[in-house]
Specification:
It is a single chain. By secondary structure, the chain is of the alpha+beta class. Helices cover 31% and strands 22% of the residues. It is built from 8 helices and 15 strands. The chain has an 8-stranded mixed beta sheet, with helices on both faces. The longest helix is centred in the N-terminal third of the chain and has 23 residues. Bound molecules: 1,6-di-O-phosphono-beta-D-fructofuranose (FBP). 1,6-di-O-phosphono-beta-D-fructofuranose (FBP) binds next to β5. One of its GO terms (cellular component) is cytosol. This is Fructose-1,6-bisphosphatase class 1. One of its GO terms (biological process) is sucrose biosynthetic process.
């Protein structure tokens, strides 16, 4: 990292990168909301804000009190921004109009991993900014492939509060200076290692996976004695943001495949405000993000809360997983593995 850029504020970064002032202004408002969310989370047990509400979102999941509060904080912050035309969120059934003259459609997962709230685990806010389409309905403006995103990022609320963001040219990490309440640059030009020996998946779903995917995971677990001839470690935090941040920080593969459970035939995670922003960030770190056949960024969504399988992280491992899933004949697969082993 070029020391002269270290600890420069986000606003200084926007100027240095000549980011469109309207777009920069929207992100600045998102960050103000996220600082508010960080403060709210840190006091939530004291103020009795943990626990579930009696409401559920469009995916049928019970909404946490903080899911709704964080959504409100973001909405209140963005409703005054003339550049925001549309707003969509995991915690709202419908996308809404904000400012007719706005140029951007902004989608959110206000509090990702919210099941971690009650155990004081890491959670995050994920956002995606698209060019607003002059569409008949607000929802239509979000039905664009992820490759159209102008900006994508997440804020992780962990031991430190950090922003990971891309405007399509490289990925950057900022850390919240809690005293000054500003995000300062702590890492630029982030690169994810091409290969890894760490995978991240909820193993409790193994009985619901299809045979090919189960085979892939079994070979990771077989380690050195198996066809992969390498030992793998596993981690699962229960919050996509935290598991992806590990991948961004040291490589790895994050997996949430489709499975046979009710409503999970297309996976669990949502395409527009979870998978797409994460995919744009990873591609700009030299990593990859696929559903079980195509690059996630190439998919044109057909509805706002559409789900997608996610296979994301270190490119070599993502392709190996795809080879298993696409049921490459065992010969083709061992050829591929042999080739990739000789690659090292
Ligand atoms: P939300 O919390 O925003 O609904 O996100 C879904 C999520 O919590 C991801 O963050 C996480 O990766 C996954 O679901 C955990 O799923 P599971 O409980 O099946 O392990």
């Amino acid at each position: 990292m070029n020391d002269s850029n270290r600890n420069k504020t986000f606003s200084q970064f926007l100027l240095r990168k000549s980011i469109d002032p309207g777009l920069g202004g929207v992100v600045n408002d998102i960050l103000s909301a996220c600082i508010d969310i960080a403060n709210t989370l840190s006091k939530s047990p004291i103020e009795g804000l943990t626990g579930s509400s009696d409401k559920s979102n469009s995916s049928g999941e019970t909404q946490k009190t903080l899911d709704l509060l964080c959504n409100q904080i973001l909405r209140d912050q963005l409703r005054h921004n003339q550049s925001v035309k549309h707003f969509a969120s995991e915690e709202q059934n419908n996308a809404i109009n904000v400012n007719e003259s706005g140029a951007f459609s902004v989608a959110f997962d206000p509090l990702d991993g919210s099941t971690n709230i009650d155990i004081n685990g890491s959670v995050g806010t994920i956002f995606s900014i698209l060019p607003a389409l002059s569409s008949s309905s607000p929802e239509e403006s979000f039905l664009q492939p992820g490759s159209n995103q102008l900006c994508a990022g997440y804020v992780i609320y962990g031991p430190a509060t950090q922003l990971v963001i891309t405007f399509g040219k490289g990925t950057y990490i900022f850390t919240l200076d809690v005293e000054k309440e500003v995000f300062v640059l702590t890492e630029e030009g982030v690169r994810v290692p091409y290969e890894t020996s760490e995978f991240s998946i909820n193993m409790a779903n193994a009985r619901s996976w299809n045979k090919e995917f189960g085979n892939y995971i079994d070979h990771l677990l077989d380690g050195k004695c198996g066809p992969r001839q390498k030992n793998y470690n596993m981690r699962w935090s229960g919050a996509m943001v935290a598991d992806i941040h590990r991948v961004v920080s040291r490589g790895g593969i994050f997996l949430y495949p489709s499975d046979k459970r009710k409503g999970m035939q297309s996976g669990k995670l949502r395409l527009i405000y979870e998978a797409n922003p994460i995919a744009l960030i990873l591609y700009n770190c030299g990593a990859s993000a696929f559903n079980e056949s195509n690059s996630i960024l190439s998919v044109t969504p057909s509805r706002l809360h559409q789900r997608t399988p996610v296979i994301a992280g270190s490119t070599k491992e993502v392709y190996t997983c795809l080879n298993y899933i696409q049921d490459e004949s065992t010969e083709r697969l061992s050829e591929y593995l042999q080739a990739s082993l000789c690659h090292d």
